[in-house]
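Posting for a labmate who doesn't have an account.
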Amino acid sequence: MNARVVVSQLGARMDYAVPRILNAHGMLEHFYTDICATVGWPSVVGHVPPRFLPAGIRRLAGRKPSGIPSQRMTCFNGLGLSYALRRMRASGPSDEMRAALDAGRRLSELVVSHGFGQASGFYGFVRECLEQLQAARSHGLWTAVEQNIAARETVDRLAREEQERFPTWETHAAQTPFAEALAFGDREKAEWAEADMIVCPSDFVRQTVAESGGPVERCIVVPYGVDTRFQIPVRNRQRGPLRVLTIGAVGLRKGSPYILEAARQMRGQAVFRMVGSGAIPPAARAGLEGIVELTGPIPRLEIIAQYAWADVFLLPSLCEGSATVTYEALAAGLPVVTTPNSGSVVRDGTDGFVVPIRDADAIVRALQLLDQDRARLFEMSHNARFRAQDFDLPAYGRRLCDALDQARAIPAARTL
């Protein structure tokens, strides 16, 4: 049976893991994306030391879908550049969400016009592939959509609740606009209806699809994986303040206020570093000097040094799909303190701690335990490395391909 698949995505999500995996398994018919650093990329960039390149160019230079033959890949560079410009010029979430919706529709138009070749299946990502799903089904292909974050209704509900708890963190203009959120949610549900399979990276995501009235019977949980470049030697620092690292956008969804509160409580015991874009309100910054370092965004190619600096990884997110930074941290030998809503594969008490959302005190208790018992910290670091071995890219590839084997059998069953 023909098992070849067309994959479509905006951006370099997980370093193009899905198309790379399918190509390695001989299943990739074609890969469509917006812009990357291989096809049509100025060759001079590859010869310039990264430190001399602007941050934006360094991030784009990291978009390398290695292992995918150029003849199996089409990059819509014009779409990528126009989408990047719209995001740069966006004055708030309303503009950002309209840009994302338009980019998804435009990507779909371009993919449909280029066609599906000899594929028997199509794999896209939520809120950017509706028209592709419809066209693929009309051509008799089986279809899968990856729900790479919680259902939109859950995202918006949690966002509203946090905005009420921390009104100074986001201006009114920065809050989620109702009309665009509704459009996102409607597009998401329409994609669920068209997809033969909804690929969820965590039980948390699957649960949010069910809570939103989605076809949970067509959901399958496929945890992610990361490559071996994040595997670095386990550290055994017996002295000095505990080094706590967070990577991700600074903001309410990532639980940033609870990181700051934990940092205040652990002044003198731990130092905190937050890597990512976003701003902390002036009132929240008060008293953080010397205990929280804000680096701003750092290109993916330079992120391993951050893991090497840390003793513990902290991600108290309120809403994720399955945060890949938690997989990376485990591979780097870092115990992970996180929440159920991060969708991680962390085992509570073994290679980290899973604490309730919105609970700075629980974060502090977990970090203090690791700070005061460095032998436990060292043991958990080794456990983290071993846990990560079950969630490397080959293991993820096997899980994904097994899931898509099931997807091929679903369309016939749906028509009965």
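Reply:
Got it, the structure tokens are right above this. Residues 41-45 have pLDDT under 50 and may be disordered.
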